[in-house]
Specification:
The protein is mainly beta. It has a single domain, classed as SPRY domain (Jelly Rolls). The chain has one helix and 15 strands; from the N terminus they run H-E-E-E-E-E-E-E-E-E-E-E-E-E-E-E. The strands form two sheets. Strands 1, 4, 6, 7, 8, 9, 10 and 14 form an eight-stranded antiparallel beta sheet that branches. A seven-stranded antiparallel beta sheet has the order 2-3-15-5-11-12-13. It starts with 12 loop residues before the first helix and ends in a 5-residue tail after the last strand.
Amino acid sequence: ALRTDILCNVPTYKGKVRAFHHAFSTNDCSRNVYIKKNGFTLHRNPIAQSTDGARTKIGFSEGRHAWEVWWEGPLGTVAVIGIATKRAPMQCQGYVALLGSDDQSWGWNLVDNNLLHNGEVNGSFPQCNNAPKYQIGERIRVILDMEDKTLAFERGYEFLGVAFRGLPKVCLYPAVSAVYGNTEVTLVYLGKPLDG
């Protein structure tokens, strides 16, 4: 299948190099996934009763940062995007929302539109009636503001709102967790958000 360049929203060569430095870490992911040669795409192997995740190479403790995430295969029963500290696990038994399962991670489950942190559902997201479900290939922009200590999301060019407030002043890494065998998830760092 023909696909567009995964870096199409990164305008400059310098930005593309920076994006590669902020890509998934091959040393900081579940043993049940591998990072494809492009460095931006995680492939989850078909392992039964396992939830598997990955963090990026570089985390953030200051500044404002944006990245895009999209699924290139089925979501399965749980598909979570968000942030995690280095202490958050990247693999666990069963099919669960790994990101958000402890106090070291914050996630948005794209399957049921729930926000997750510390093992609890922190409400639905986006906060509107009949929120549309995520569609395969749809790019979600994640915006981490370490000055305001918030995590927000956009779909296309629509700002969906702030999902989490009061984030700790620690190093936070873009992260994802998946359960579906052979699914692929791509994450591309964009830099500072363009909203000013």
